[in-house]
Amino acid sequence: MTSRPLIYGTSGFRAKADEQLQLIVYRAAFYAAVRAKKLGKAVGMMITASHNPGCDNGLKLVDPSGRMLAMECEEELTKIANGTEEEFEKFKNEEIQQIKNNEEKDNPTPIIVIATDTRPSSAILYEEAVKGIKLLGISVDIKYFEHHTTPQLHYIVRAINEKKPVDDYIQQFRRALEKSREFLNFEENTNLSPLYLDCANGVGSLWIAKYLENNGFICKNGLDVTKEGEVENLDKNIILVNLFNINTNDGELLNNGCGADFVKIKTSLPANFPTNLPVGTRCASFDGDADRLIYFYPNLEGKICLLDGDHICAIFTKFINEQLNEAKTNGELINLNFGVVQTAYANGNSTRYFSEKLNIKPLVTKTGTKHLEEAALNYDIGIYFEANGHGTVYFSDKFYKLIKEGENGKEKEQVPRYIKLLSLFSKLVNEVDGDAIADLLTVEFLLRYFNWTIQDWEKNTYSNCPSFQLKVPVSNRNLFVTPEDNETKLLQPIGIQNKIDECVSKFLNARAFIRPSGTEQIVRIYSEANSLEEAKQLANELEKIVKAETLKE
């Protein structure tokens, strides 16, 4: 291929939705079909570019466990997808011959599960995927889920392989949400204010009501609510969810001035939100494929305060920690390994909260969900979140065994409360992938459980150290190289790290780093300082350094 190679990064392939991407999807689909045949399991293909603009698209593969493609396969897939026609033909013929040689083995028909979000280019890429699958020359069961979220695809793949009901990607969470109401004291709960939800004009807007409606929530078009100025009288136990940015028919609107990534980076209200929201109004944003969730609220200065993935991680961790401590108080020793996993983007004050208030030292990994997920799998309860709002909680077989033993053979009232709550929590989250909708259900339950406003949530965990992020477009992100084990330092270009350190030293209590994106032709800048103004100033200084280096290319 003559174009710049597309690397299978932390979120799969991402690029402009052009002919090069079509070819990449075509070849990757063949690779997925081969993998499904060899494993004798269903393999998933998600066609999306997540938080990228609507003109982009991409692809990521999902392994039979419902988790991401095994890391050892990424380099091989990148090579196959970007190879010459001759190289691809050679790979294809060798794999087909190998399958023919093993025909006597009683392997089941391979299953490929394909899902697309609402991007205009998804239909064409789906057709290319089907063509690539058919290259295998044998019967392949293709299951297509149009207009689905990325987390739903992960869940569906695992459900198929575990022979569980596929529609549980909604029903499990609805059942858990209904069950959660048993643990809420509605008489004392005085903080059931409306939620203002930005759906990024993405696929999440098609699904959120199906999870929430008639289950303690009612969803309304936020623009209509704002226009009317009032809503019919609601039961005091029902939460109104005002939905904004729900236009999935115009691809140009996707993630455009809205969505979790926009809110996180710009620290601004999303497009179409009322500008006169009262201070402390609870707000949240999905990203385009609904695998990221950010909360925020307007403050007294007319700006917004973010409660991002680190804060979601904090409220999750506080809740689980309380249940484990409750067990100890009751003389029960729950021998479960519990840990928190973060990246260098985690706010410095969040790390201090976990270490000093909860006595849990977070494990820091490289940026990218695959690295956090891999680390979380080493715990019986492993929470991983990125500051961008992507994350979930992993539960081991040992955890589920303990819950089962705690519930079995006992009357309902005899089951310890902490067992009930841990069991409920494990059903509210989507443990196979970061899921904006499932995480929202869980946060909304926990806020009512603790009887907190969004400001109470911040007050009872931590306030963010002022930080700022910039994305700098570059022609070649590969110029910027970090060590394998530390993404907060740059090895190349030579001498750039000294310039970064010199800039940081000009500001009190500051830290900052520059790293290449794993999915886009951009370099990301992150800075923390005593004030937002200083954090922005520091980031702008680092942007000048990046631009100066790119001019040398």
Mean pLDDT: 93
What is the topology, as strand order, of the major beta sheet?
7-8-6-9-10-11
CATH class of the largest domain: Alpha Beta
β-strand number = 18
Number of domain modules: 4
Quote the beta fraction: 15-25%
User: How many DSSP helices?
Assistant: 18
Helix content: 25-40%
CATH architecture of the largest domain: 3-Layer(aba) Sandwich
Spans of at least 5 consecutive residues whose pLDDT stays below 50 are: none
CATH homologous superfamily annotation of the largest domain: Alpha-D-Glucose-1,6-Bisphosphate, subunit A, domain 3
Radius of gyration: 24 Å
Catalytic activity: N-acetyl-alpha-D-glucosamine 1-phosphate = N-acetyl-D-glucosamine 6-phosphate
Domain Alpha-D-phosphohexomutase C-terminal: 506-543
Domain Phosphoacetylglucosamine mutase AMG1: 308-452
Binding site for Mg(2+): 50, 287, 289, 291
